[in-house]
Amino acid sequence: MAAKRRWEKDRLVWIYQQMVRIREFEEAVKRTFIEHPQVIRGHAHLGDGAEATIVGSLFTRKPSDMVMPSYRCHGYPIVLGTPLKQMMAEIYGRKDGLCRGFGGSMHLADPERHFPGTSGIIGQSIAHATGAAVSAQIKHTDQIVYCFFGDGASKQGAFYESLNMAAIWKLPIIYILENNQYQAYTHFSLEDANAMAGEPLSKKAAAFSMPGRTVDGTDPVAVAEAVGKAARRARAGKGPSLIESKFYRLSAHGNVITVPPLPTQFPEHEAIAVYGNRAEFEEWRAKDPIGQFRARLIEQGTMAEGDAESILQSARDEVAEAVRFALDSPLPAPEEALNYVYA
Ligand SMILES: Cc1ncc(C[n+]2csc(CCOP(=O)(O)OP(=O)(O)O)c2C)c(N)n1
Ligand SMILES: [Mg+2]
pTM surpassing 0.90? Predict the structure, then answer.
């Protein structure tokens, strides 16, 4: 009994630790725009607010399973164990990056860890992930696919076509709809923006006779329970599920590129900048999944305050080292520009 409790405790602390590592990494990406203007040449989109959904979902995976998110993709490889140094070097466009500096923030890939790649074309990653599930089924690899995508992406045709095919063929895939309530600059809800029909979004699963469920995406344990059930179903050959995880994107959609010599910056959140609704933003900021989970673990005696502090400090050290490594890494040589271009 004591051993089981210890195991449970370790698992909860592990979840907290991964959430903190993701947040600290993304804070460093955001800071780079201020402290080292022009270092990140393209766009970067942060997933702060999504940590409980990412870690809770991936908590249930086996190491050989495939993980295929959309373009807001920093958090997932962090949980899979991809070195932060290589990730930061990729975001900085450097030679030592995961994709030798050719991919950038929106195109991270780590095939060794079954993270095949991401796409900035909204909705299409759902079709890619469904294809990966077809491959796993044909090859009998026993892998399942964790397919993450946004509320906006779920309006695309690729979503409906993919869910139909996955249901018919009982593909080993979990569709994790990250409802962060914004689609770039537009609020998702029907009343506010006339952008999205049908709530909760998970009820669309019924059209394909697959299980659909909406969970509190600020609670990693609730996410892990729902996704774990879907994973057991997929592994048993019973087919796909749709999980809508509802949370709030805590940063603006992405950075804005201003004209040099002005630095590239992150603007205010769209709730404030577009809708003038600071109250909505503050309400959700108070439900920050990391703050909530930290308080809960401390209150229930699972984690000591001191442990929480050392988790934060070691994440900061790890990230600082990744930043140093990335800044020291050279840019790819100009003559390499056309390498890896297939057209
Ligand atoms: C096919 C396509 N259309 C439009 C865009 C421009 N675009 C970039 S992000 C985005 C919104 C995506 O919203 P959502 O799927 O909810 O993902 P989130 O940004 O919230 O993670 C849009 C429309 C795009 N990249 N691809
Ligand atoms: Mg969204």
Answer: yes
pLDDT in tens, 49-89: 999 999 999 999 999 999 999 999 999 999 999 999 999 99
Bin 275: left if φ > 0, else alpha if -120 < ψ < 50, else beta.
alpha
Least confident among 78-82, 247-251, 262-266: 262-266
Give residue 233's pLDDT.
98
**Domain boundaries, given as residue ranges, for the chain:** 2-23+44-248+267-336
Please tell me the distance from the alpha carbon of residue 251 to that of residue 269, in angstroms, as a whole number.
Answer: 6
Residue whose CB lies within 8 A of the most ligand 1 atoms, among 71, 105, 106, 122, for a mutation test: 122
Q: Please write the tens of the pLDDT for every residue from 310-338.
A: 999 999 999 999 999 999 999 999 999 89
Nearest to 212 by CA among 265, 174, 248: 174
Ligand 1 center to 123 CA (angstroms):
8
What's the topology of domain 2-23+44-248+267-336? Rossmann fold (3.40.50)
Ligand 1 binding pocket, CB closer than 6 Å: 72, 120-123, 150-153, 180, 182-184, 249
Separation CA 196–CA 288 (nearest Å): 25
Cα–chain center distance at 228? 17
